[in-house]
Amino acid sequence: MSEKVMMKGNEAIAEAAILAGLRHYFGYPITPQTEVAAYMAKKMPKIGGTFLQAESEIAAINMVYGVAATGKPAMTSSSSPGIALKCEGISYLAGCDLPALIVNVQRGGPGLGGIQPSQSDYYLATRGPGHGDFHVLVFAPASVQEMADLTGRAMHLAWKYRMPAMLLADGTLGQMMEPVVLPEPSNAYGEDNPWATTGTQMKRPHNIVNSLELAPETLEKNNIARFERYRKIEETEPLWEEYLMDDAEICIVSYGITARISRNAIVEARKQGIKVGMIRPITLWPFPKEPLAAAADKVRSFLCVEINMGQMKDDLELAIKCRKPVDLCYRVGGMIPTPDEVLEHIKKLAEGEE
Amino acid sequence: MVVFEKPHALTDAVLHYCPGCTHGIVHRLVAEAIDELGIEGRTIGIAPVGCSVFAYNYFNCDMIEAAHGRAPAVATGVKRSLPENIVFSYQGDGDLASIGLCETVSTASRGENITIIFINNAIYGMTGGQMAPTSLIGQVTQTSPYGRDPKTQGYPIRICELLSTLEAPAYLERVAVNNVKNVRRAKKAILKAFQNQVDGKGFSLVEVLSACPTNWGMTPQKALEWIDEAMIPQYPLGVYRDKEAE
Asked: What are phi and psi of A202, to 5 degrees?
């Protein structure tokens, strides 16, 4: 398994999920993630798994809910407008403390929007995609390799913490081909899931998977208990990568495809003598607040590079408690900044600081 | 000698249903079927959103509470995950015939090997008596205060007839629970709908015409009569699909 293979990002997600033990996939066609479903449609019948093209995004997430209730890994994938439709189901998964993997290969919005890449579902993903107080784990891959690695990680952690996880990619990452080393086979879910509805076998009281609680005192308690679990996750699970941060005076904060573009811009800026580095969040929830707060002690300013109107900028300003200025370099609607555009922004910042 | 006892598949929980409501009868018939087939230990039930939302407290088998209308999709997921288990959903008319109609038709069309118990009482009960997709022409409800007017509110949906246009369903029958004879027929139908699943025959749905005296504004007795007088003419009882008999 250690050899490199060329794969599309969307296919890497599908294969990595199967390698982590996934046997039940439910989806609905939408650009630019249809390759995930196409891969599953080919592969699942050959390994005794389920591929089902659901009648709707809503049905797909509820089929995921059904499988999740039985204690087995379940997955659906879609793109932004489809994810909006799944939000009801994601809320129910969270309310029932069920693990599941939801892949969002984002495209531009709002509304029907476009089919080109975007990161405009940052708020939707990180604020709890659905009604009620909850979070999902959110992973932001920046390469086809990470598409594969983070898919497995998302499934493992979803099961560990009994909550939905979202892989938040974008159309570029989904469509591009890169060499990837596929992960070793694993079993993301433990065998013993005493909460699962698998039939009592007349040996135990019945299990109930449910999010309804009419007594407000109890519902409050349930919510608080869930958030205590979230606090632990915020302490232990944030992932990030630092790039040339040792002497950086400007810190770029960027994730996913824009982090790769920013990296090119940083290399060029360094050649021109500008001390710029990057902190790349890999988990968007939990957000890596700690390294960002530490960076705020050292750098003069931050630059958010995103393909949305600055949705992560809020989280960054909160993480650094607005102690340093935060600028924004963005394109939207399916447009992507070039490394030169990012470089120009870095240069402007550097000049302003001199 | 025991002459009458509670089915094992029902818990000891006290039902929350209104006086004269027929959910209790149908719960019992479902539980009797589960007992008679000896499948309680491998049965997983899906509760809807509606008056029977608390069905998860009333059946002794494992239970899942679904989002409004999504029970057939949830049941599909469960059955695909555990094909050897018995999976049923218990849904009302708002759940199955309105907000969940897409899931209902698609699940039936796929011929999922599950059992659906569909309670048609021509009204939204849990929310206090609003017009249902199955409300009758002229029926007065909170949201059709001048009577259901087909010009603006359309016509009642006949689910068994609608689903009988599909290729896949194995068994579709409409029954009522407003008198002893009809309850006995309903029992037979529900038992068959579960037996079909045990035998791997495919999608089975039993539509049960039920009474809602509270929201119909009738006495329990009058409500049972109204099923005969008003509902059955609109929703004729009988078998709409039985692949076994064909």
From this structure: 60, 25
